[in-house]
Amino acid sequence: MTQVEPIQRSVTVPLEPERAFELFTARMDTWWPVETHSRAEIEFEDDDVHVERVEFQGRAGGQVLEHLSDGGALPWAEVIVWEPPHRFVMAWRPHSRPQPATDVEVRFTPHDAGTLVKLEHRGWERLTEALAPELYESYAGGWIGTLSRFAAAAEREVA
Question: What rounded mean pLDDT belongs to the chain?
């Protein structure tokens, strides 16, 4: 597959970078839209298994895990760069398809009275040509709603 432009999305939140970073990572389970963006919703749609919580292990080599009501855990990503409160990078693979991971980098930069949070999702050329367009389109729209949920959680922090 030829080089594919990364998906780039950003949002400004009314928190200093340290608090924005901590909300995005350590408290991901308070704002992530698991009702629409989880492996359990796809892989167990006919079962009575649901997401109990999302865990972001804040360190290089840590994982992002979806903990399930049946006691299981499904991995979404591995943290490959950990530089709080400035940025992190994940090898992102929140599905069970036989595809390599893509990369999600999130940067936190002071901006006015808050933080500019920039997300870049890249590495699409690693995927098979049959699946890459479908996943790309899904994430191109999905990150908009996901970052909106994060921004709303940040707004509640200052309310």
Answer: 91
